[in-house]
Amino acid sequence: MSKVYLTAPQRIKTMPPGIPYIVGNEAAERFNFYGMRAILVIFMTQYLMNREGQLAPMSDSEANKWYHLFLATNYFLPVFGAILADAFWGKYKTIIWLSLVYCAGSVVLAVDHTRLGLGLGLMLIAVGSGGIKPCVSAHVGDQFSAENQPLLSKAFGWFYFSINAGSLISIPLTPVLLQNYGPGWAFGVPAGLMLAATFVFWLGRYKFAHIPPAGRAFFRDNFNAEGWSAIGRIALIYAFVAVFWSLWDQSGGEWVLQAEKMDRQVSIFGWSFEVLSAQVQTLNAVFILALIPFCSYVLYPAISRVFPLNPLRKIGIGLFVTVVSFAIAAWIESRISAGERPSIAWQVPAYLLLSLGEVMVSITSLEFAYTQAPRRMKSIIMSLYLLAISAGNLFTALVHHFIANEDGTTKLPGAWFYLFFAGLCLATTLVFALVARSYREKTYLQDAETAAA
Questions:
Q1: How confident is the model at residue 379 (pLDDT cuts 50, 70, 90)?
Q2: What is the pTM of this model?
């Protein structure tokens, strides 16, 4: 007899048997995404070809514009992935089919290095990656019953470990592949990992609990008066968070191109080596792993002794810290504009502060989204958070579009570009402080519909 899929979690006290397949899939998929993303602007500005096989690279401003448009699309599509999974296909079917689309995009990038290949590859990756993004973490939770619920936090710990493991390996590795072996290998190795990720996930198909989609009830339970009210309240806060992401995602574009113009020779304990510009992004992953426990156990308790913290206050402080990181980036750019070649070490404090801002804004925003969303709207509100990332990147892309001159120069040359965003974030911080003072939280718990904050 042919096997049938499980439609409910197994009532066991051990770790669900499908979890290793999800964790393995996530590690390989994140290797692909972060590796591809790490070298994207370098590829567009140095390796892009025309149809005749000749070099035809983009300008820095054009490459940054398309980089942010890709990210904007990638983070816009999760809302459709969530609806597709929860209302129509179910999570497993959504993940497996959109993973195949994702694989196709990765392969296109590896074999076609023209603008056509770039556009088609990134479009397919955005559809695949964006579509599965809201489904995978929710699929983890679907595997647990009441009997093994205490193991859920451990499973999510391994899940997020796999994300960081994938990025920590791929971000340093893919720039080396690009420099030494070209874009075919640099995009091809991550593409191979994405194919492996999809295969690993398929192997677990009979181990997973396949929760059936809700059908029409999904729309009835989510898009009602209470639901629209929750969306409106949280969207107000996420409008400010979008500005943070407008700045943060420049670490993978503008900051990489800034590093290209810096002295990247590093000496540690007598060992001298050159850091590739795209590898500097690894600092973010390292700092995040260190700052999460530091903030939770040291910084937040220390601040709360004199200034009691809540989620909105954490976000406000994180926005201000991000302003300082961009002030450092502006200073670096001013030194480059004077003909100097500053050391890449100057980007370290900028990345440290940007990562601190991420811990305060991003992780807190995820917590805020979860607690402020009605129980039946957790996925939709999480998608709203991803839309804030999309909006931030769309804004940055539009800035690049409108400041570009016909001769390839920019209306915001040198440090002025970074000062513009630092000023924008500072103004956002001040307005956010006023809004946060009057904002009334409405917390939704798992064991009760609402509880006033």
A1: low
A2: 0.87
